[in-house]
Design goal:
Structural class: mainly alpha
Helix content: over 70%
Number of helices: 10
Oligomer: single chain
C-alpha cells in the first residue's frame, strides 16, 4: 500500500501525447441572446408556412399529376382497344370494367387533391391571421416603434406581417385553377389533345411560378431570419 501511495508524492512523468488544451466555447450570437418570444413565434410560423407550401407542391406535382396522367392513359387505352374492334363486335367486358374502375379511382384521387389543397389554403390563412394577432399584441405591450424595429437583419415584425398576406393570392388562384382543371378532366368524352393541354397547365402551376413560396419567400427568409433552416 505504501509503495502505491508513494507514486502520488512526486511529479508524474509526462506522457508522449500531452492532453490538448481546452478550446474556449463559442459565445452565442447577439441576435440569439436578444431573441424574444415573438422572434421565435414568427420563425416557427414562417417554417410552418413553408411546410404548407411544400405539401402543396407535393400534392399537385405528385399525387395530382399522377392521377391526371393515369386518367388520360386509361381513357387512351380504352379508346385504342375500341378502335381495334371489328364493326359490331363488343369489347371484352373485364377489360372495359377494369379501365372504367381505374378512371373512377383517378377522378377520386383528383377530388382528394382538391380537398387537401382547400385545407392547406385555410391553414395558410390561419397562420397569417395568427401573426396579425401577434403583431397587435406586441404593439399593444411594446408600442409601434418597437414593432417597426429590425428583428434580425433589416425586416421588422410589422413588415413581415403586412407583406405575408400577399402570398395568399397566388395560392388561391392556384386552387381555383386546379379545381377548374379537375372539372375539365371529369367528363369521359374529353379529347386526348384537350387532356394534354390540361395536364400541361396543371404541371406548370403558372400562378406559383411567380408568386409562390420558393419564388419569393425562401430567399427573403434565408437572409432576414436568424437560424433559418435549409429547405428540403
Amino acid at each position: 500500500m505504501s509503495g502505491r501511495l508513494a507514486s502520488f508524492r512526486g511529479p508524474s512523468t509526462p506522457t508522449s501525447s500531452p492532453v490538448a488544451a481546452r478550446q474556449p466555447s463559442t459565445p452565442a450570437s447577439p441576435s440569439r441572446l436578444s431573441e424574444l418570444p415573438h422572434h421565435r413565434t414568427l420563425r416557427s410560423q414562417l417554417l410552418e408556412l413553408r411546410n404548407v407550401a411544400y405539401e402543396w407542391e407535393d400534392r399537385v406535382s405528385g399525387q395530382g399529376l399522377k392521377a391526371a396522367s393515369s386518367l388520360v392513359d386509361a381513357r387512351t387505352e380504352l379508346d385504342n382497344e375500341l378502335a381495334m374492334l371489328s364493326v359490331g363486335k363488343q369489347p371484352a367486358y373485364p377489360f372495359v370494367l377494369e379501365k372504367l374502375h381505374s378512371m373512377e379511382m383517378c377522378i377520386e384521387d383528383l377530388n382528394e387533391v382538391i380537398r387537401r389543397l382547400e385545407k392547406l389554403f385555410l391553414k395558410m390563412v390561419k397562420i397569417i391571421k395568427g401573426l396579425e394577432v401577434l403583431l397587435h399584441e406586441v404593439h399593444k405591450t411594446k408600442g409601434w416603434k418597437f414593432v417597426e424595429e429590425p428583428l434580425w437583419v433589416t425586416w421588422s415584425l410589422e413588415k413581415f406581417v403586412t407583406k405575408l398576406p400577399y402570398i395568399l393570392k397566388p395560392y388561391r388562384r392556384s386552387l381555383e385553377t386546379h379545381s377548374d382543371l379537375v372539372e375539365q378532366l371529369r367528363p369521359h368524352d374529353v379529347t386526348f389533345e384537350e387532356s394534354r393541354q390540361i395536364i400541361a397547365i396543371w404541371q406548370a402551376q403558372p400562378h406559383l411560378a411567380q408568386g409562390g413560396w420558393d419564388a419569393i419567400w425562401e430567399d427573403i427568409c434565408s437572409v432576414e431570419v436568424d437560424r433559418w433552416s435549409s429547405p428540403r
